[in-house]
Amino acid sequence: MGNVIELKAADGTRVPAYEARPAGTPKGAVVVIQEIFGVNSHIRAVADGYAAAGYLAVAPATFHRVKPGVELGYTEADMGEGFGYKTAVEALPAPGVLQDIQAAVDHAAQASGGKVGVVGYCWGGLLTWRAACTLSGLSAAVPYYGGGVTSEAEVARQPRVPVLAHFAEQDSWIPMDTVEAFKKAHPEVAVHTYAAHHGFNCDQRGSWHAPSAQLARERTLAFLGQHLA
Fold first, then answer.
1. Which pLDDT tens digit goes with each residue over 16-56?
2. In this structure, are residues 30 and 116 in contact, taking their beta carbons and an 8 Å threshold?
3. Domains in the chain, start-ordered, CATH in brackets?
4. Are 128 and 153 in contact (CB under 8 A)?
């Protein structure tokens, strides 16, 4: 359904992205932000899913500045490798990878002719939160189990657009007491929790939980339908 395109960031860096287009006229666009495993087959499938729902979907390669062409699986070794790339990206001088996400937002708006939302998973959930608080041209944001979103530094941010946040109740990376603190600090954010583990949306991971993934997708599509119309 999709193909690889090239985005141009504000500093001139050219960044590849996977783009999936709907069958008809897009009813808006969704920027899909990867986990720490690259724009792999799962993230491409997620983008294809949003395209099937009528949106133009763009998934930028957010590791490109430190390692082009990353496409990992979900083994322990893959997790260690991906965490290393994530650490390297996080260490880039500001605005770092956020300018690549901004380029994806700008492209998505132009290519779809509609409003743009951003959805991200794991580390991509954290980048989605930051995008909602700092970037321009967005109308909605949906972080899934964003590692670090409930940290003190991130809770201090203020979103510029409506946010729907999904968390897992059995997530060893994001303790529920920090989720509760986040909810208290951000009553404007719609927070949902699920009886599942970190990564419940990914059907290639052992933590995949189909009922939670389905419910979160239904809520996400309803949220996007409301704010991207």
1. 999 999 999 999 999 999 999 999 999 999 999 999 999 99
2. yes
3. 2-227 (3.40.50.1820)
4. no
